[in-house]
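User: Could you check the structure of this?
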Amino acid sequence: LRVASLVFLLLFGTHMCVGQETRLHLPEHKSKEHKNDTSYINFLLAQSDSIKIADRNLSIRILQSAIVKSKAIQISNGFFNAIYKLSQLYINNNEPEKVLALMAKYAPYYDKEHMKQVTNWYEQISHAYYYMHKYETSLSYIYRSQSLLNKENSHQDSSDIYTKLGVIWSAIGELTYALQNYKIAEEIAIRNNDSVMLSMLNINLGAIHFKRGELDEAEYYNRRSWERAVKKASPFHKTIVLGNLGAISDKRNNHDSAIYYLKQAVALAKEKNVGLKALIQMQTALGGVYVNAQQYSKAKAILLQTEQLAKGSQLEQSLYHPLSELYHILGDDKKAC
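Assistant: Sure, the predicted structure tokens are below.
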């Protein structure tokens, strides 16, 4: 079980902005059960974040409630942020089709005259198609978003767009186009002193070098990303970097180092609640390294634990192959089938 697939590119937007707080253009709802301020909506969003790994179904229901309540009290930020967070949860659960349904359902509420709302709508759809491996369609929506941003001369958001273009071109296998877009994104991010975006770009550049087998360069960019992530206290980026360093070490057949980094990645993912998908990827990768190191009992324990964690979500399917491979090595062909 080689963990090369662990190094993955980030597509999530770093700047979730729908503009200043405004009232939605919707029929007024006077139900007394809704508190007429944003504090309750913010409470729901925070509550959903805090349990998104422990109880993802409840987290989804809370966000659905936040969407309804935000719409009822005519507050736009809570409404759009709840939709954005719900789409992220669906992606983390490997359910991109639900993102498309979500965006279709609420499309009428995205103001065509409000550039940030429209570009956010395009980008979430692009994100869904990316995880459905429909890269050409994903590209088309990002290009629509880019066209709007260019009209508004929105440089900070453009760095995010160019990063996403790089991600998609890399997935297609056009690494030259990917690097061209990353270079433009880097120039914009440096001008804007955007450390979060630069951290993401370094991870993505490291992934391209990893694909090329250039492990020293891959390590260099991941360590650069770590420095920026530490400055901005970005636990998600730090988790990914630790996982990537584990993958690089495993590729070098340095299993002890790979185990060290991946155990740190798993611990950080749990401590900071970075998301179910990242946690499952880190634990699956750790199980793969244990197999490579011939520590089969540890591999079995972590992979079975991860299977339970993923149970009931689309992510459960990602455990079938590594567990089958492990059972085959252990000579348990019935379970390997």
